[in-house]
Amino acid sequence: MVLALLGSSAALGLWLGIQYLRRVRSKPLLIGLHLILGGASMEGTVMLRGTLADGGGSLAGVVSAVTLGNAVAVLLFTAMLSGLLTPLIAQHSPRKITSVALATHAAVGALGFLLFIAWAL
């Protein structure tokens, strides 16, 4: 379920990024849906991190699962925070700075998504 939410958020984010590069104004509804999907997947990741840490297995396996889960949670939180700050940066900055902020958001989000897949496997 969390993978579906996170994948949907990533796919929608990719679509919004392509629209940004085409200089097409994004619909606020799609941006809001991206935010909701990202927040729900981040919440699911934190809840899943707790259940995987409580599972049986070797101590090394539990420690590595918790460490990787923490990294995923931090990356998703950073992506969400940078995504929320990007419109504030865009109001008072030229397009080049806005593009860097958006690229940072996309890169951190993509890294969090890929690390989540590795962690879930």
From TrEMBL:
Keywords: Membrane, Transmembrane, Transmembrane helix. The chain crosses the membrane at residues 6-22, 29-48, 60-85, 97-120. This is Uncharacterized protein. It comes from Rhodocyclus gracilis.
